[in-house]
Amino acid sequence: MARMAVLPPLEVVATERVTPRMQRVVLGGDPLRALEPVAPAAHVRLLFAEPGAPVTLPVPGPSGLTWPAGAARPYARSMTVRALDRGRGTLSIDIALHGDSAAGRWATAAHPGDPVGVVGPGGGWTPPEDAREVLLAGDETAVPAIAALLEALPCHAPVHAVVETHDGADEQELARPVRWVHRAAGGTLLAALRDRPVAASTAVWVAGEGHAVKAIREHLRLHRGLARTHCHAIRYWTRGRSHEDCDATFGAARAEAARRGITLVTTQDVHEMSYELMTGGFPIPVGPPSA
Ligand SMILES: Cc1cc2nc3c(=O)[nH]c(=O)nc-3n(C[C@H](O)[C@H](O)[C@H](O)COP(=O)(O)OP(=O)(O)OC[C@H]3O[C@@H](n4cnc5c(N)ncnc54)[C@H](O)[C@@H]3O)c2cc1C
């Protein structure tokens, strides 16, 4: 996996409450004008401190990012590029609010002029060329990616989206129709996906809570026979674990892969190995992306 670059410091230029539980923060700065276009669902690592505190940026080194000695490390949170306007030099991030968390505290207190660091952007998703249909699914944290994909995917293949939110207040008007499922009414993504047909030629993109993503992935791969190449399932967060805890799982996944002599090439590879460690055994073997 290519390492993402650390951008020179950026600052907050605007904020907006998109829904009761979704806060948009728009970042600005000249470094954004120099970026290459990004694929839909690309992400960044957002670096921020507690409201009002300065942000220390890391320096790229041979074995990853290092922080200046003695400096307090900022929070680092993966967030999707909801929109990148290279002409204006702005990058919009939509942050799901879920109680008193570091990202939520920062996003709701952010003001124009606040400093922020960005590592990236990187990643993004394009369906396999032979996909005849695309199915996107996720919870609130996946809405920015699904929104970007709905805007960017070509019109010739049908694109369906299923999104799980707490209730109807967090629904958004997106570029194409979405089936909204509400937890408050007992709905889940897995139940919604079980209800619908998934052909072998369907490309599925799923992101959200780790246990839910794992269950959906197993359902699609084992019970619906979907090929690995057509099932892109990524854990965006895990119940009961902070982002730092999840990062540690990825580190452990890389170490375990090295111990077994497996090369993890894509984000999907790292996630599969991390699912296996997280659950004490995953019935779909980790291997080359051929099957
Ligand atoms: C590639 C990628 C892209 C992502 N894009 C986005 C994005 O665009 N917008 C976005 O909001 N998130 C996105 N996420 C998810 C986000 O990084 C995590 O939800 C992150 O943990 C949020 O940090 P926090 O400071 O709010 O909570 P943390 O400090 O990391 O966690 C504190 C507690 O909150 C729980 N928690 C974390 N997230 C949620 C949640 N959404 N709902 C309920 N409980 C939660 C944790 O399990 C933990 O118990 C993305 C993740 C990845 C890997």
Your description of this structure?
It is a single chain. By secondary structure, the chain is of the alpha/beta class. The chain folds into two domains: 114 residues, Translation factors (Elongation Factor Tu (Ef-tu), domain 3, Beta Barrel); 147 residues, Rossmann fold. Helices cover 24% and strands 30% of the residues. The protein is built from six helices and 14 strands. The strands form three sheets. A seven-stranded antiparallel sheet has the order 6-3-9-1-2-8-7. Strand 10, helix 2 and strand 11 form a beta-alpha-beta unit. The longest helix has 18 residues. The radius of gyration is 19 Å and the shape is globular. The two termini are 20 Å apart. The C terminus is likely disordered.
Question: Gap between N and C termini, in Å?
Answer: 20 Å
Bound molecules: flavin-adenine dinucleotide
CATH homology group of the largest domain: Nucleotide-binding domain of ferredoxin-NADP reductase (FNR) module
Helix proportion: 10-25%
* Structural class computed from helices and strand pairing: alpha/beta
Count of DSSP strands: 14
Using the alpha-carbon principal axes, give the shape: globular
Oligomer: single chain
Low-confidence stretches: 282-291
Q: Assign the CATH topology of the largest domain.
A: Rossmann fold
Which architecture name of the largest domain does CATH use?
3-Layer(aba) Sandwich
Number of helices: 6
Number of domains as seen in the coordinates = 2
CATH hierarchy, class of the largest domain: Alpha Beta
As laid out across the biggest beta sheet, the strand order is 6-3-9-1-2-8-7
The biggest sheet, with number of strands, parallel, antiparallel or mixed sense and barrel status, is: 7 strands, antiparallel
- SSE arrangement, N to C: EEEEEEEEHEEHEEHEHEHH
Q: What percentage of amino acids are in beta strands? A: 25-35%
Radius of gyration: 19 Å
Protein name: FAD-binding FR-type domain-containing protein
Organism: uncultured Actinomycetospora sp
InterPro entries: FAD-bd_FR_type, FNR_nucleotide-bd, Riboflavin_synthase-like_b-brl, SIP_FAD-bd, SIP_fam, SIP_rossman_dom
Domain FAD-binding FR-type: 5-128
